[in-house]
Each structure stands twice: as structure tokens, then as C-alpha cells.
Amino acid sequence: MKELTYIDVVLIGIGYILGAGIYTLLGLISKYSGNMIWLSILITGIISLITAYSYMQMAKTSDQNETEYDQIKNSFGSNTALVVISLAIISTIFSASVISIGFG
Known about the structure:
The protein is mainly alpha-helical. It contains five helices and no strands. The chain has helices spanning 6-24, 26-33, 37-61, 68-76, 78-103. The longest helix has 26 residues, at 78-103. The mean pLDDT is 81.
């Protein structure tokens, strides 16, 4: 029986992201952005890098394993944290829907 290493799991995740994000949805992206596909993908990449950077900074400043909700609640209050986490859940549902449509 073969076990997956950390590198194996990371590469599988990258493969899923590339497969769902680029190859499956490229036709739909080109339908709406025309010959500005490169700009759409560039903007998406920049947003992904900013998100990764903010999570990295959040992890560095936290002295314990806090969730996003705890970090936002400590910084801005519980009402703002509830709104942000609700929007994050909704965006995750929409992302899963788009990927499902793309694979369908």
C-alpha cells in the first residue's frame, strides 16, 4: 500500500486548481472577456496573491491557532466578523457551483 506524502497532496491540489480554474472555465471566460482573457487571468492571479499574503501575515501575527473569525472579531468586532465570514461562506458556495458547472 502506497502512502501519499505532503508533496504528493500539494501537487494533486495544484492539479485540481489548474484543471478547474483554467482548462474547464476557459471557454466561459473567453465568452465574456473576449480577447482580454489574459487580463482576466492576471487580475485573478493578483487577487489570489493578495489573499495568500494576507493569510500569511495573519498567521505570522497570531500567537495561537486562531480562525479567521477570531482574527476579524479581535480587530473589528463581532458584527463585522459575522458579515465577513458569511460572505466567505457564500463565495465558497458560488465557487463550488462554478466549478461544478465547468466540469459538467
